[in-house]
Each structure stands twice: as structure tokens, then as C-alpha cells.
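Late entry, siroheme complex.
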Amino acid sequence: MSEEVKLHKNESIKSVSRQLRGTLTDELRSGADGFTPDMEQLIKFHGFYQQEDRDLRHQKNADGSAVERQTSFMIRSRIPGGRVTAEQFLVELDLCDKYGNGTLRVTTRQAFQLHGVLMKDLKTTIREINEIKLSTLAACGDVNRNVMCCPAPYKNNSVFDEMQAFADRLADHFRPKTTGYWEIWMTDDNGEQQNVSEFKPVEEPIYGATYLPRKFKMAVALPDDNCVDVLANDMGFLAIVENGKIKGYNVVVGGGMGMTPSAKKTFPALAKPLAFVTPDQAISVGEAVVKVQRDNGNRSDRKLARLKYLIANWGMEKFTAEVEKYYGGKLTPPLPVEITGVDDHIGWHEQGDGKLFLGINIENGRIKDEGTLRIKTGLRAILSKFKMRSRLTALQAVILCDIDPKDKPEIERLMREHGMAAAEELSLLRRYSAACPAWPTCGLAVTESERALPGLLDEMEVELKKHGLGGERISVHMTGCPNGCARPYTPDIGFVGRAAGEKYTIYLGGNAQGTRLGYLFKDYVPKPEIVALLSPVFARFKADRHAGESFGDFCARLGKVALGGDVDSAR
Ligand code: SRM
Ligand code: SF4
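Prediction complete; structure with ligand written out below:
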């Protein structure tokens, strides 16, 4: 990068941080309720964000004075492939009650999030997470984040275990090697702050002194089950199976959802095929990709810093040549493999070893007790009794594994007792839906999302039934802003928070298997008008669809003009 380019201020925060230590220890001890602005950036590498409860902003005390704002933290645990033990799950549930806001969130990248943790409880919470052998290091920040992987626990061949083991290797290989995390979170509270002059850096072979220009995301998927939305990642590995074993992976690069409507150069993108790699080559080629991004990604404008923009600027040919230089050899062209399906893994399934697994839908990933729906207590009861391993899905659901068929009735009874719906009681619309948190915790939200989608789905279910489409699988994802945390640009329908007053952009024409970006159908639609606006599209779909055609395929085939969409919008 030429020297005249002014680096983004986060670059100097990283470079002087002494491998992510900064002044975190001093600030933790200061008695303040939050971190200084520079450290607010650095804490992300440690897996947490400084937030406030935005609902309180407009609330008043009895005397009419404004309710005092309270700083709190969201803490994300990094969980490769979403695999957790019963103990880990139960401790995370306990932590949300002890230190958080009483809810535990399953994220769209198969991780757990606590919300509402206070500064005084940060160290204990992070320490307790590490004590159960989970980590928050690199759950956020300009590094490789949680590695996603199809969570299906099938045992009838080795493919699923091989993929999960590969996800673990990726997670480990791309983990920052700094010892600062352990010093800050795992050392005794009364210990002295390490003398700055005594700082001895460890080798950070992949990230160097300034880490990556921006966050980096990886996922591992199967062509017939893209449940992790692999093409939405900076780098994806599509497993190619021959004779029941993984022969290698097609590496795909440059996916990402985030965009800023006012910044015209930003866009969501699907990852493109780069190369075929054998399992032995996969990590080295992956490392070459990450290093090309490290050394060439944009470090002055964070809006344009993701890998997708480097690839858009260079084109695939130049990018591939550069990866070959770092890898030190020619890459094999990708194999002609297509993504053909997706499975939400909800309901009861044979595992293949005589045991069963059960996928439980968690509305928008929020594990909580509310009224008669007591998912938190229900899951606690089931996990405490049967101590099964679990997996978190990218559609924010939970899979309970290794269930003895004789325990099925008792698990179903416990679910009923706690108001938890069985798969048959849920529409496919609901099962294939996802929403980001947005208000009140996300500082970037412009509209509601997690709290808005359930009501909207209620209305959509009624409308779809009217059109005789009640049993249709239509994937619907909602976010409270265009950053795309619930990946709203790939499903059949995307709702993206656009402006205050609950106005959304509607995207149509994606698909549940995540192989196509939707197009902007209507902008600035007030929430109460959404279903009425979609109703004629449902009617047309019912009347004019081809046999077996999905809603997204139909919308893509007809296009926005034929469906009455906004023609003046480029996206
Ligand atoms: Fe995200 C930022 C929540 C998955 C794109 N995301 C945020 C923050 C941390 C807001 C902030 O920066 O202050 C949100 C915290 C809200 C809260 O209160 O919890 C947030 N993102 C989430 C989660 C929890 C949404 C969810 O419904 O589960 C997901 C956590 C995943 C995890 O476990 O690691 C989450 N975020 C995603 C995804 C989906 C994915 O990765 O598959 C995306 C789109 C893919 C991508 O990265 O392009 C995503 N989040 C963003 C962006 C836009 C990035 C960009 O390059 O444009 C931001 C804003 C930013 O980075 O500046 C963001
Ligand atoms: Fe927040 Fe926007 Fe992400 Fe939703 S999509 S969590 S509103 S940053």
C-alpha cells in the first residue's frame, strides 16, 4: 500500500497494543463502568463489545428525569462447528442468569452470546467460560472468527466427523497466538499489571503486528446441505465426497453480507470458487488466502476492507496468482460442484449409530423463559437429566445429540411441559427464519429485528395459508440494519432495517440454500405494510409457478420489474 494512504485509526490501536493487551488490565481495575474509546475497539479481539440498553434511552423515572444509561457488555464464546458439551451449555445458561440479562443467544455463526454483563463481572464471566474449555478470544475482532461447519451429528459415515475435525483445525490454526488474553483474563485479580517494558512478544505467524485489515470468516459445508451459508463467508470449504470419504474441498473466497446503502462502493457478495484442495493442502492454501488479504486488504477504509473488495478490485485471476505466490505452487482448478440443498436439522433424526438426534427451533436464537414458553428452563431440565452433547446451527437452533430411543418420550414430555414446540407444530416459514438482535443491545440497529420478526411471521403465515401456500418452505431473514448479521441477502425473502419508524428494505429472489443474492424489491417499507405488499407476489407465485419451483426461484425467474418492484434501485 502506498505511503500517502492514511491508515484507519484502528491500525495504530492494534500496532501499539502489545499483542492485544493495550491498557485493558488498568481499565478493568479503574472502577469505571466501561472502556475508553481505543480499548472499546481492542476488546473485540477478546470476544466482547461495549453496549448499552437502548430501550432505556427514552424511559423516564417517576420524577420525569431521564433514566440513567447503563454500560454493559455482550460476550461471545467461539465454538467451532457449534459443538458443545452438556456441561458447557449448562454453564453458559447459568452465566446468563448470574451475570447477564437472563437470556442466552445462539448466534447465526453457531456461537453463544451473553448480553448485559457489567464491567465488574467481565473477568469472572470470561474466566468461567474458559474454565469449561470454551474461549472468547477471536470471537470478534480483525482475525478469523468462529469457524462454522455443518452441525449434523450423523455417524453412518465419517464425512461429518471429518468436517468437524477440519473446522477444529482451522479454528486452532488461525487463532491469535498472543499470550495477552491469558494474562488479562486468567491471572489473579491481585496480580500486578505487567510492566510495559517487560513485554515480550510471541510469534504471531499469520497475523503479524497489526492482525487483519478487518474481520475474516470461514465455514465448511456439504454441497447437498449448505446449512451454514458457506458462500457468505470470506473463505469457505465445500467438501467433495467420494466413496463415503472427503476427497478434498473446493475453496471459495470473497463472500460477505455487509453493505452501507450510502456508500455506493459497498455490496453483499457470494464467495467464488478459487481452487480444489486435498485435505492435506487445505490449511496451507487457506493460510495463503488469509495472508494475501493481510498484506493487500484496505487498511484505510474499514467499509472497504473485507476480502470481497480486494477480489472485486483485482479480479479472480490476479487474486489466484497472488495466492499461488504465497502458497508456493500452482493451485488445482475447482471441481465442477454445485450447492444443491439445505437442511435445518429440526425434529427427530436417526443418527446412524442406533442413537437419535433432535433439532429444536429456538426463535431467533434467544434462549429465555417468557410466559408459558420456557425454553431456558426446558433445555436446562433436558441437558441436566440426559447430559447429551449439543450442537448449535447457523439458523440459530439447537441440536441435542446421542439420544437413546427409549428417552424420546421423556424428552418430548419435558418439551411439552416447558411449552417448546415440536417440529410438526412449526411452519417451514418459521423453521427457516432468522433474525439478528438489533434493538435494544445492538448499537448499529436502525429498526427492530428479533422482536419484530415473530409478529411478522404470524401475519405471513395467515397470508400464505390464504393463498394455499401454508406448507411452503420460504426462508425469511431479518436484520435491523444493512450489515446483514442474519444474512438477509441470500434467503427467499430478506427484510433489512432501513430507517427509524420501522421501515425496511425487502429483498426477493434469493434461496434457502444460499446460492443466489436477492434483489432489492421495495425500499423504505413501513412494517405494517409489508405483508399487504407481498400478498400479490404470493398470489402470482401460486398461479404461475413451475412444478416444484421455490418462491425464491420464482421471484428470481420473473425479476423485480415483472413483480412490481422498485425499478429505480440499482441493487
Ligand atoms: Fe454481525 C456487527 C451481531 C453475524 C455482519 N454484529 C455486529 C455487532 C457486533 C454490532 C456492532 O458492531 O456493534 C452485533 C452485536 C449485536 C448484539 O447485540 O448482539 C452483531 N453478528 C451478530 C450476531 C450475534 C447476529 C445473530 O443474529 O446471531 C452474529 C454473531 C455471529 C458470531 O457468532 O460470530 C453476527 N454479522 C454476522 C453475519 C453472518 C455471518 O457471519 O454468517 C454477518 C454477515 C456476513 C459478513 O460478515 O459479511 C455480520 N456484523 C456484521 C457487520 C458488517 C460487516 C461488513 O463487512 O460489512 C457488522 C458491522 C461491522 O463489522 O462494522 C456487524
Ligand atoms: Fe446490529 Fe445490524 Fe447486525 Fe442486526 S444486522 S445485529 S442491527 S449490526
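The mean pLDDT is 95. Will revisit in the morning.
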